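Anyone up for a design puzzle?
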């Protein structure tokens, strides 16, 4: 199976996808065939903030045509923010498109996660992941504006400061302790810059890792 990624949204997350795919496929002794296209994070951010679904779907369509031309059998939009126009994109996609939010939903169902805290970009927080999660009840940080701005700073710069890390850790803890969440979803693939190599003291669901494992399972089938 030849995997296609729409990357660049943001660049740090794309690097993380590449590294984890290489590592996971090598560990499983499965050959990795991979092509990545580079999308513009600023275009996605602008379209998502204004809910311009048709416009962003057209952008993704061009990338999916490139992936088809490269021989890809399946594709993934690496940014969960990019899933705001998933339905519009999937209709005319040149390549079968893996729904990254469905993968999260299935994980929560299997793990019995009934109440899930959410960390991510401003559109993700505002819409509770675009209302696409069905299994768990979703709770959000009490200060989504400040947190959303911090997320975009990390995504655009590819760097997480100690102060930003503390902000995200505290927001997750608040959803666990005050809102009854049993786990916190990293609903932004750039959050690996925040949580990678650190223990926040509560259960974290890493969307990026779930996507990598879903792609590996498809490659094995």
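Challenge accepted. My sequence:
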């Amino acid at each position: 199976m030849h995997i296609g990624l729409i990357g660049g949204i943001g660049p740090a997350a794309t690097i993380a996808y590449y590294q984890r795919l290489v590592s996971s496929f090598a560990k499983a002794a499965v050959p990795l065939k991979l092509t990545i296209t580079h999308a513009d994070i600023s275009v996605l951010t602008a379209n998502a903030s204004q809910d311009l679904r048709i416009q962003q779907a057209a952008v993704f369509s061009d990338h999916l045509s490139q992936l088809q031309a490269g021989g890809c059998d399946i594709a993934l939009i690496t940014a969960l923010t990019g899933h705001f126009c998933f339905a519009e994109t999937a209709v005319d996609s040149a390549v079968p498109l893996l729904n990254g939010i469905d993968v999260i939903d299935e994980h929560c169902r299997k793990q019995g996660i009934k109440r899930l805290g959410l960390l991510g970009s401003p559109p993700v927080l505002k819409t509770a992941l675009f209302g696409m999660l069905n299994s768990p009840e979703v709770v959000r940080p009490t200060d989504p504006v400040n947190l959303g701005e911090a997320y975009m700073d990390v995504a655009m710069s590819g760097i997480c400061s100690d102060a930003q890390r503390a902000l995200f850790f505290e927001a997750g803890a608040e959803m666990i302790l005050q809102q009854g969440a049993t786990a916190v979803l990293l609903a932004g693939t750039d959050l690996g810059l925040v949580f990678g190599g650190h223990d926040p003291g509560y259960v974290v669901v890493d969307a990026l890792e779930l996507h990598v494992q879903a792609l590996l399972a498809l490659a094995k089938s």
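A detail worth pointing out: The beta strands are 2-7, 33-38, 74-77, 115-120, 137-139, 183-187, 204-206.
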